[in-house]
């Protein structure tokens, strides 16, 4: 992979992408408490780190070439690190990008649909247990994990690789805290729901319902 435009320097585009993606994050994640805001701040750091390297300064490529001596051309295409490091060429970079964006858009769709289902249930004064919430207990958080994972497939960087497990752990702890509150509020009904529905990853037979959110709708709705 030796041709293509030089990497880095387009800070205006960096700012635009950070604003757009951050709007989606805060629009549908809707943090309420300061702890939720702190976890959203980790995702915000992930977003900034990602696009600052994608369109700004390529820190990861600098470290790989300058400190570790790995031959990575200073070209925009080299940001597709998996294809670059394994010598898959431009075709590999394109496949990497397509897979990554597919996972990203799936994650975003779970985040948005999960938000809609919580909103509908809240309007009715009910507990959200239908649709995606019949497949996993925290589909919005699953959506966040998938969206970030897709970006790691598409455009991995050292800062985002470090941040990803921290974000997963932070939202796992938040989910546990939320479930304790729900147990206090809904008692045995939520306890039974928690017993039968997985936390983030669906049962083997329910993967299709998760991957195609429309199919997870309540058939009686």
Order of helix and strand elements from N to C terminus = HHHHHHHHH
Number of domains: 1
**Largest sheet at a glance?**
none
State the CATH class: Mainly Alpha
Shape field: elongated
- Spans of at least 5 consecutive residues with low confidence: none
- The radius of gyration over CA amounts to 20 Å
Q: Which percent range describes the beta-strand content?
A: under 5%
Total of helices: 9
Compute the number of strand runs.
Answer: 0
Share of residues in helices: 55-70%
The CATH architecture name reads: Up-down Bundle
- CATH T-level fold name: Four Helix Bundle (Hemerythrin (Met), subunit A)
Distance between the termini: 52 Å
- Overall structural class, as computed from helix and strand content, comes to mainly alpha
Arithmetic mean of pLDDT: 86
Walk me through this protein's architecture.
The protein has 221 residues and is an all-alpha fold. It has one domain (11-212): Up-down Bundle (Four Helix Bundle (Hemerythrin (Met), subunit A)). 67% of the residues lie in helices and 0% in strands. The protein is built from nine helices and no strands. It has helices spanning 11-29, 34-55, 59-66, 81-85, 89-123, 139-154, 158-186, 188-196, 207-211. Helix 2 (34-55) packs antiparallel against helix 7, helix 5 (89-123) packs antiparallel against helix 6 and helix 7 (158-186) crosses helix 8 (188-196). The longest helix has 35 residues, at 89-123. The chain is elongated. The termini are far apart. The mean pLDDT is 86.
